[in-house]
Design brief:
mainly alpha; 62% helix; 0% strand; 11 helices; single chain
């Protein structure tokens, strides 16, 4: 009779991997429940014991702060922007970029809004440890990070652009941020916004004479 094989254990994660896994499981729950989410719910979503959370995070506040910090990170956004093919027309490149940027801003808004719904949003631990100048630099790095990737989308058309790609990238990003702000009027579709950015408000037809008053 063959002896039963020993049950294989899943490979152990290092602390950073465990931290990333817990934050990933916690993010949708934070959006749904805000600061009222329990560590028990997060543990169940992550498939771990509740005590495992506290071997990685000192308390729930530290976990919530890590969730906000993760939402602010531009890594995935940059990867998607850099993956946009430069062989397609500029309007198509910018339409795809608009979708990527809006997704990133929506994610930040959902997490920050959920944490602010009951009291103030948690501050990332790193921001508390840094001085005022370092903290401000870290805060400004978020929106500034996609600038180079957006600039590269304009580069193939540099010869026909009215402004330098860097200035156009800044303006395009500001337009996206303004269009996506809370309380904004009926939002434009990504393709509509790009068309407005590239061609302006006028139709391009002949100018109509003003009526005499």
């Amino acid at each position: 009779m063959n002896e039963p094989q020993a049950r294989r254990r899943a490979p152990a994660m290092d602390p950073e991997q465990r931290r990333a896994m817990i934050v990933s499981a916690a993010l949708p729950l934070v959006v749904e429940y805000g600061p009222l989410v329990t560590t028990a719910k997060i543990a169940r979503a992550a498939g771990i014991g509740e005590g495992t959370i506290f071997r990685v995070f000192t308390d729930k506040e530290a976990l919530l702060a890590a969730c906000l910090e993760e939402a602010l990170r531009p890594d995935d956004t940059l990867a998607h922007l850099e993956a946009i093919s430069l062989d397609q027309p500029l309007s198509d490149r910018l339409t795809q970029a608009a979708a990527v940027m809006r997704g990133h801003m929506n994610r930040i808004g959902e997490v920050a809004g959920a944490l602010a719904s009951v009291g103030k949003a948690a501050r990332p631990p790193a921001a508390e440890a840094e001085g005022p100048e370092e903290g401000r630099s870290r805060h400004e790095a978020g929106p500034a990070a996609p600038r180079a990737a957006l600039t590269s989308l304009f580069e193939p058309d540099r010869a026909v652009l009215r402004m330098a790609p860097e200035r156009l990238a800044d303006t395009f990003q500001l337009l996206l941020m303004s269009a996506g702000r809370p309380g904004a009027p009926q939002p434009l579709e990504d393709a509509e916004l790009v068309d407005l950015f590239l061609h302006g408000a006028l139709t391009g037809g002949p100018k109509q004479p003003e009526e005499a008053t």
